[in-house]
Amino acid sequence: MIARALIALAVADFRERVRRPAYAVTLLAAVGLACLAVPSAASRWVILDVGGYRGVYTSAWVGTATALAGALWLTTGGFYVVRDAIGRDERTGVGPLLAATSLRTPTYLLGKFLSNFLVLASMVVVLAVTAPLMQLARGESFAVDPVALLLPFAVMTLPPLALSAAAAMLFETVPLLRSGVGNVVWFGVSMAFLLAGQGRNAPLGGFGVRQAAESMRVAMAEQGIGVRAREFSLGLTEVKEPLRTFRWDGFALDGAFLGGRLLFFVLALAVALLPVLWFGRFDPARRLLGASAAAEGAQTEGSAQEAAGRPIAEPQAPAVFGAVPASVARLGRVFPFWRLLTGELRILAQGISRWWWLAAAGVTVAGFVAPEPTMLLPLAWVWPVLIWSRLGTQRVEHGLDGLLGAYPTPSKGLLAEWAAGVVLTAVTGVAPLVRMAVAADWPGAGAWAGGTLLVPSLALALGVACRTHRVFQVVYLGVWYLAVNGVAAVDYMGVVRSGGLPAGPSPLAVAAVALVLVGAALAVRTARHATR
Fold first, then answer.
1. What is the pTM assigned to this prediction?
2. How far is residue 14 from each of residues 40, 46, 111, measured CA to CA in Å?
3. What are the domain boundaries of the chain?
4. pLDDT digits (tens, 9 = 90+) for 40-69
């Protein structure tokens, strides 16, 4: 009976997810990942590099390269795809209905975990189906070996994805991690896991990189090619010249490695069931009990204040920027857009903790004394990611879209919202700009200016189009990570240098992209306004 309820819950939740347009987008992303894993022979962008070599595109190499790429990227990105399963039940009212049934909390959690895993596994299936097509399209080997092609997906990709599915469940049941903070925390945790999973002493065998690398080195040695252990590179990198080839027929599996694969699933089940200790499964009795206790505590505190002769402070919304000075108010009456801008700044910074601003101030001070002007710019421009993600989404997430939609000219409000994001970006990155201006590093200052326009433009465009803050958080963290790791093609900050000059795109090109994104956001919002 329990097994039937578990399977029914997981399948129903999975079917509900696959009907969404976003699911088709994720499958298309999986196809694109498979294409990246098996680049053309002349490509200088590769995912798997063994000391300047790659294997001939046989089933063994194509399957292993695609499976490792899937394990690398889907472990991080898959978390963002499947999270919000519990939150959706709460918003739609399904959760309270389930709380009234005999469904037990462990069964509910396992059903959601299984649904998460099925969604991620379907992406792996797309990778596995695309892999032989890429092998035939590259034309280096037309002999398709199903076992050599599909086995890497089973032992390299699926086990870590089970942990991602379980982590999404865990994060949704912890109040702090349910918010955008959880998205940032998971990015850091997953990056650490990805690095550890590629090491020689990776826990539970990691992604299987050590087994594959040792087998490849043996095959290369037999062909008269010598490489060191540290020359095995997994991740999207740019090489100076196309990789040379060697023949590799796959690696053998031993009992210890397979045992580690099974332990991945056991650990994932344990993580998925851990919230049983505190998750109330939408039980209103628990919530009412907590609300009563909170009200009683507030009443007690108020009585204590009255007894001490102190007035009870009325709750106030945080005003981070403080009261608007009279001169600014007069300026706002003369220039209406200035009033919109100051209002959007207040909204954007609403409710931010003083500790956040204190940390931002510390990063700014450190930027003035750092040895290099741009050393702390990546930190300064990742710290506000949760605030940037509010651009274009707050009116929807707070239920004000219908009210604000009655405003006759939505373009002014959107431009003011974008300008508030530009101000925030400039303020948080002001120290490197001052340092570059003092050193007459005008190319660096130009790159800084382009980034100042691009970041809020990307946040606004994704927020308006997708109507959720999570998309920007995921996309921006990925682009930021590539820039910090020296991928000049996406360096919007000017931190990747060549000959002392920024090696990334031209600031004019970055600014042009920013303006295109703002225009796209304006077009989407105008179209929605016209259809009301």
1. 0.72
2. 35, 33, 10
3. 2-284, 326-530
4. 988 888 888 888 889 999 999 999 999 998
